[in-house]
Amino acid sequence: MRYSILASGSSGNSFFVRTGKTRLLTDVGLSCKRIEKLLIGIDEDPSQLDGILITHEHIDHVRGLRVFAKKYEIPIYMSHGTWKALSPQLEDLDPKRIIIFPTGERHTFNDLTVESFPVSHDAAEPMGFIFKEGEKKISYVTDLGYVSDRIKGKIADSHVFIMEANHDVEMLRMGSYPWNVKQRILGDTGHLSNETSAEALTEVISRNTERIYLAHLSKENNLIELARMTVTQILLEEGHPVGEKIRVYDTYPDQATIPHEI
């Protein structure tokens, strides 16, 4: 599998993965033009995509969806709840290209298997995804207030984790957000902090794990360096070989990560 996080953050999210026979995009949280530019920048042709997966209906995950999907006539896969939430915005799309991907089920795209799993977030029916080609496994886990034991069981032993590390708790508490917004972010249907992300990772990484990407960082309530330092320190304290076998990578709101193949 070859993959790149095209964009990640509160302003927009998108993830690309390909195998020998399949090309998929997860979320279209930036404009159509911006997604096109990012794909071309990693030597990928937008017109060759086989499908778009949608985690949930929040604008930072679907901002460019309607225009992009209509332009390239790409099938869209999402949960029933997400479809109900988005359907008023997608009325002009071909209904045959809207495919319900039930939460907790698997879908095979040629040589790539995708499994969805429910996450705890303040959206209609949000999901995370696991991508598998043969024995290789990538887990995409963002926009959730906590990582349940069920999710840990699903994502364990991944070769690559794309894991939310949205905020530093003290930065959020001391920041300018209204109290109700802070409570939402800190709640069970909000977002993972650097610490809670790291604590979950300590339970799911294994000898298979090669890379961890810290995703969906808040521009206001986190710092790239702080997220990386916090997660790395907690993993090292738990005896995981970060910096040796396992590497922790940053993601960005305005540029793609360097494509990598596993």
Compose a concise summary of this entry.
The chain contains nine helices and 14 strands. The chain has helices at residues 32-41, 59-62, 65-72, 80-86, 149-155, 169-174, 179-186, 194-204, 224-237, and strands at 2-7, 14-18, 23-26, 51-53, 76-78, 98-100, 106-109, 112-118, 127-133, 136-141, 160-164, 211-215, 247-250, 260-261.
Calculate the terminal CA-CA distance, rounded to whole Å.
Answer: 5 Å
Query: Helical percent range?
Result: 25-40%
Please count the helical segments: 9
Supply the CATH superfamily name: Ribonuclease Z/Hydroxyacylglutathione hydrolase-like
CATH class division: Alpha Beta
The count of β-strands is 14
**Main sheet overview:** 7 strands, mixed
Structural class: alpha/beta
Order of helices and strands: EEEHEHHEHEEEEEHEHHHEHEE
Overall morphology: globular
How much of the polypeptide forms β-strand, as a percent range?
15-25%
The CATH topology: Metallo-beta-lactamase, Chain A
Lateral strand order in the biggest sheet: 6-5-4-3-2-1-14
Mean pLDDT: 98
In terms of per-residue confidence, which ranges show pLDDT below 50 for 5 or more consecutive residues?
none
The tally of domains stands at 1
The radius of gyration over CA amounts to: 17 Å
Name given to the CATH architecture: 4-Layer Sandwich
